[in-house]
Design goal:
The protein is of the alpha/beta class. The model has no long low-confidence stretch (mean pLDDT 88). It has a six-stranded mixed β-sheet with strand order 6-7-8-3-9-10, sandwiched between helices. Strands 2-1-4-5 form a four-stranded antiparallel β-sheet. It has a single domain, classed as Rossmann fold. Helix 6 packs parallel to helix 7. A hairpin with a 2-residue loop joins strand 9 and strand 10. The chain is globular and about 50 Å long. It has eight helices and ten strands. The N and C termini lie far apart (55 Å).
Length: 255
Amino acid sequence: MKSKKKRELEKAKILKILADKNDYQLDPNAMINVFDITKVYDLGEVEVRALDGLSMKVQKGEFVSVMGPSGSGKTTLLNMIGALDNPTSGAVYVNGINVANMDDEEQTNLRLRNLGFIFQFYNLVPVLTTFENVELPLIFAEVPEDERIRRVEKYLTLVGLEDRKDHLPAELSGGEQQRVAIARSLSNSPALLIADEPTGELDTKKDMEIITLLQELNKDLNQTILMVTHDPAVGKLADRLLKMRDGRIIDEIKF
């Protein structure tokens, strides 16, 4: 009898083939193309539909925020786009790559080389210095040492922490730790930067500093950014705001 994991991998491969055969009309100028995705969690007698036929796109170089009440599907959507989970149906393309229903190895390579992540909790390694935390993804990607040093110094300067490179996370403020996380997310020059509540642990002054930094990255580097936030004041600082409810996008506001 096949193991559960093996059956799931075979199912994922079949769904990927079916997705590839669909005649999805990709927008060549879009970094993200999402087509009619659903995500259903089977909890025995209860079925939870976290995403319900959602379609959207984000243009290259665009800064888009997503808002909605708890349980609306915001984080689930980020997980689909960030190849952290697979949809039940539908297709997700990031930079022209069909990321829906990839296997574990494909998802890992995609995240390592094409995506950058910023989370509410900074997820820094406490025993590593600022420099070493930013360098870590580059080591995993087998980037040569000289190039690693160049990139780390570049992005620490970009986020204003070049003089804090030898400090441990515990020696930094919350805002500084989030800046380290941003530098780390940029170290592999990602096509797409995904931010999940990046200011959730910061006070009002520091959260505006982080959003201002993201705006600068968007404008100066033409960095595509997709951000989930619960704060309307933060959400409206993007180019466009998508409002979610019950697993769907119900409204769109351009600024």
